[in-house]
């Protein structure tokens, strides 16, 4: 496939922080994707959760399955827009590498514990994983990924952190947060594919868990429309097949909407290069106005009925207690940390806890306290 003029072309990459010889058979973005897949942090995603804790069931989404779903959606949309699919895949597979155990509960706890020491952002931690924490190569720390991949990984960034990164890397991946610019279209697409994926799989996991009923979901117009389309074609359908076909139609509707709305936005803006995309005042990869409203309404429903469900909140309280206790134990006695983290202060404690899987955190907490919270 011929890439569009506004796509990120691997031959025009801004390069790596440490120069390396070109690979003989792979593009620079293919090489990034492969490094991410072989990283330790990527393998850990299989035991890091989304909404439901790892021990609650084998079929609920994890950070790994979520990342694969984002990559699939991103590549499907990117192909229609003639963007670089390998870059999309690399960003999608790496975007959650910095996520803590126990989902957003872990993010909130670490940010609170680290408030006096610079705070904690999972997007910034994902960049830290690929820039510093992975220890695989003899010549450098991290994975030494291309600028374009790192740009996409840093989805959000507080201004104070952006200023620090910009000071160390002028004009680099944090530059846009200080100057109101956009990332590449490939990065923008991963941001939106992330939203589409987690809304869909949280419906699936929510119904599977019994915390949300499909009938409840019919109050959400997007769900009702897609469910009605399924029943119009298959009137006798029920149970899992009805749920799965409804979600399939929701995904398709959102994917086609993004393709159409983004084509229109790109056509109106007329960027002739990836750098011209970065100068735009707003993202060009987007939903239509109607689909944006529909997606927002779905998110509000999930927040009220799933994320705030008493059973989910009960698990969250225990997860927060576990991680706060772990942080305090390591802070009071760094000798409890592995050797490579003992001299790194509070940031090293955050690095170590953020890298834990759910089940390792549970075992470590039980080992150090003699208590089992789950």
UniProtKB/TrEMBL annotation:
Gene3D superfamilies: Hypothetical protein af1432
Compositional bias per record (Basic and acidic residues), positions renumbered to this chain: 17-29
Stretches for region Disordered: 1-29
CDD domains, sorted: HDc
InterPro entries: dGTPase, dGTPase-like, dNTPase_2, HD/PDEase_dom, HD_domain, PHydrolase_assoc_dom
SUPFAM superfamilies from the UniProt entry: HD-domain/PDEase-like
Domain of life (superkingdom): Bacteria
Domain spans labelled HD: 63-199
Keywords: Hydrolase
Pfam families: HD (PF01966), HD_assoc (PF13286)
Key word Hydrolase present: yes
Family: Belongs to the dGTPase family. Type 2 subfamily.
Protein name: Deoxyguanosinetriphosphate triphosphohydrolase-like protein
Provenance organism: Roseateles agri
């Amino acid at each position: 496939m011929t890439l569009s003029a506004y796509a990120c072309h691997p031959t025009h990459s801004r390069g790596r922080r440490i120069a390396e010889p070109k690979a003989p058979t792979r593009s620079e973005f293919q090489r990034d994707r492969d490094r991410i897949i072989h990283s330790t942090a990527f393998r850990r995603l299989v035991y890091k959760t989304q909404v439901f804790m790892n021990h609650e069931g084998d079929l609920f989404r994890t950070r790994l399955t979520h990342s694969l779903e984002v990559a699939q959606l991103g590549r499907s949309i990117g192909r229609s827009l003639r963007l670089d699919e390998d870059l999309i895949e690399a960003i999608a597979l790496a975007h959650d590498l910095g996520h803590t155990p126990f989902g957003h509960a872990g993010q909130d706890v670490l940010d609170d514990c680290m408030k006096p020491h610079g705070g904690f952002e999972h997007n910034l931690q994902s960049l830290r994983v690929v820039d510093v924490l992975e220890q695989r190569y003899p010549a450098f720390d991290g994975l030494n990924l291309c600028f374009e991949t790192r740009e996409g990984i840093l989805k959000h960034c507080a201004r104070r952190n952006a200023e620090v990164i910009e000071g160390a890397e002028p004009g680099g991946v944090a530059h846009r947060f200080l100057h109101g610019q956009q990332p590449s279209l490939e990065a923008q697409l991963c941001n939106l594919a992330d939203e589409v994926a987690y809304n869909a799989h949280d419906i699936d996991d929510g119904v599977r868990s019994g915390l949300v009923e499909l009938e409840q979901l019919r109050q959400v117009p997007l769900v009702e429309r897609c469910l009605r389309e399924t029943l119009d074609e298959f009137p006798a359908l029920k149970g899992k097949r009805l749920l799965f076909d409804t979600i399939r139609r929701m995904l398709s509707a959102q994917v086609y909407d993004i393709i159409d709305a983004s084509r229109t936005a790109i056509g109106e803006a007329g960027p002739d290069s990836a750098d011209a995309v970065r100068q735009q005042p707003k993202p060009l990869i987007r939903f239509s106005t109607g689909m944006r409203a529909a997606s927002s309404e779905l998110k509000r429903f999930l927040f009220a009925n799933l994320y705030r469900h008493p059973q989910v909140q009960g698990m969250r309280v225990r997860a927060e207690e576990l991680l706060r206790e772990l942080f305090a134990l390591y802070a009071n006695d760094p000798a409890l940390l592995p050797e490579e983290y003992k001299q790194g202060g509070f940031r090293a404690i955050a690095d170590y806890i953020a890298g834990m899987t759910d089940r390792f955190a549970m075992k470590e907490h039980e080992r150090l306290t003699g208590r089992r919270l789950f």
